[in-house]
Each structure stands twice: as C-alpha cells, then as structure tokens.
Amino acid sequence: MAVQAVHIQGDAFLVCVTHSLSTEREEVMGLCIGEVNVNKAIIHQWVLCIVRLIVHIHSVIILRRSDKRKDRVEISPEQLSAATTENTHRLAEITGRPMRVVGWYHSHPHITVWPSHVDVRTQAMYQMMDVGFVGLIFSCFIEDKNTKTGRILYTCFQSVQAQKSSDLGHLDSITKIHNGSVFTKNLCGQMSAISGPLLQWLEDRLEQNQQRAQELQSEKEQLLQELKALG
C-alpha cells in the first residue's frame, strides 16, 4: 500500500536543507521521525473501504554515512537501531504521541532530484520492513540556466514493483492525459533542441547567399557596363 501524502514540519525541513547545503562534494543523509496516520473511508452502500496512508514528519536525525563513496548513502544498523530506540522514545515523551522512524532523506549535490537505481533499491529494502517508509531527496547546488541563480529541488518517493505494460490498463483518464502531456512536452523539447540550431544555421546561410547574390548582381552590371563601353 503506497503513501498518499507526506507532511513535514518547517523546522525539520530547514534542517534537511541546511544539512544538504553543508557540503557539495558528497551526499549526506539522515532519518525522519514522525508518525503515520491511517485514514479509512467506508461507503456502506457498496461496502467499499478506502485506506489512505499519510506520513507526518516532525523531526529528523543527522547520521554518519557507512559507505564513503560520494555517490552512495548508507547507514549502519547500529545507527538505525539507536535512532529507533533513543530518539523516537525521547520525542514520544515530549509530544505524547507515538513516534517512530518513518523515512530517510539524502542530498543530490549537482545532480537531478530524481532517485537513482541505488536509491530505489535502498528504499525497497526499507519498505520491506515498513510499507509506510518514505524517501526524501534534496537536489542542491543546481544553477538555473535562465536566471543564473542557485536553486534547491526536493521530492518524496517510494519503490514499487515493476509492472508489465499489460498491467497498466487500470490507469484512469487523468493519469493517461498527464502521461501523454509529459511525453509531448519532452518530445517538443528534444525537437526544439535539435531544430533550433539547425533553423538558425539555415537562416544564416540564406542571408549569406542573398548577400552573395547581390554582390554577383553588382559585378554583372559592372561587367555589362564595361562591355558596352568597349563596344
């Protein structure tokens, strides 16, 4: 069962952003502490039960990486166990609410906000223990090409089992329209990237040919005048 929404407190979000901006040489990570609410909607007429999982993140824990490669973020079981016992219990006593580890976050310095295959595999392992476990990614040190200013992108994701194309017939019309629009937008972007420079080259070439034609026409008229003078 997938999570429908993730709510994060402002203080926790600020810690995630600050931690992500602490270094641009390697990825950093931490754990998210909070609670998972299960909302059930029962329609008696059709005997239909709709279950919605909503994750609320109240705090985060900054962790040390167990894998020293700059493009890998993994934590040791000892850190995960300590976060589960000490920090969650302490936060539960303060708030009076059942707190636990509900997710993890890590940074993507200088790269896209979308999860890599390693991130998807790591998330899948966490979800084997808890279906409500979520992953957050903060893409930082990215420069906007138009404004030349830095920006931070963030997203939340979960892993799902790969489906065959024949299993996707249940998609609703809105999802199909959205997927079609994304495909069209990407296709137009690729065509623009290819045809734009080509069209500019053709326009420059046309201008050069027109200028050369004018020069040849002037040279022709000059030669005709010289021939007329000789005759």
From TrEMBL:
This protein's GO CC annotations: BRCA1-A complex; BRISC complex
Domain MPN positions: 6-163
Alphabetically ordered keywords of this record: Coiled coil, Hydrolase, Metal-binding, Metalloprotease, Protease, Ubl conjugation pathway, Zinc
Matches recorded under Pfam families: BRCC36_C, JAB
Coiled-coil regions listed in the entry: 199-230
One Gene Ontology term of the molecular function aspect: metallopeptidase activity
GO biological process, one term: protein K63-linked deubiquitination
Listed CDD domains: MPN_BRCC36 (cd08068)
SMART domains linked: JAB_MPN (SM00232)
Keyword Repressor part of the UniProt annotation: no
Keyword Zinc annotated: yes
Listed InterPro entries: BRCC36_C, JAMM/MPN+_dom, JAMM_MPN+_peptidase_M67A, MPN, MPN_BRCC36
The family this protein is said to belong to: Belongs to the peptidase M67A family. BRCC36 subfamily.
Record-given protein name: Lys-63-specific deubiquitinase BRCC36
Source species of the chain: Xenopus tropicalis (Western clawed frog)
Lineage of the species this protein comes from: Eukaryota, Metazoa, Chordata, Craniata, Vertebrata
Gene from which the chain derives: brcc3
